[in-house]
Amino acid sequence: MSSALELRAFASGDGHDVSVAVPRRGTGWYDGGMAEHYTLRLATGMRERLTERARRAGLAERTLAQRYLEEGLRHDAHPLIQFLDGPSGRRASLIGRGLDVWEVIATLRDNDRSTAETAQYLEVSPGLVEAAVSYYGEYRDEIDEEIQLNEAEYERGLTAAARGAQALRA
After folding, report:
1. What is the pTM for the complete model shown?
2. Whole-angstrom Cα distance, residue 118 to residue 170?
3. In DSSP terms, which residues pair with 23 in a beta bridge?
4. Out of 102, 105, 111, 151, which could bridge 146 as a Cys pair, Cβ 3.0 to 4.6 Å?
5. Of the candidates 30, 27, 19, which has an alpha carbon nearest to the alpha carbon of residue 2?
């Protein structure tokens, strides 16, 4: 990803050290930056479970392990947020409620940013709305993108419904 060069030293066959400039390469994760190498030991049986879960999810083990670490760290910082797969992909949602964070934030905006009105409308506690707001504060770009995608899908649905109604009248 990066075109920066790194100087690496090698021992040549004749006993002399040789320095060579090689391009740096890395695997981006979430922020598109360079990934850091990290090694750890797994408890007995954990690798097999990871391998099986990755196979079923159609992901590389490394990718799934990185996702688990990222989501675990996010969950530690925001304990009322969980991560779920669904038709729109993997997303942050409120534990035990079936509401995605983006839904709470969009509803909050529709209710003049009133936590109490949003909580009442969604039939959740104000604390859960505040948990979504806290998560949004850290991951605003992700949540805003989900809101925009949902709004675009809603508009496509309206257009399709109008075309269908028009077709029925013809």
Report:
1. 0.72
2. 42
3. 5
4. 102
5. 27
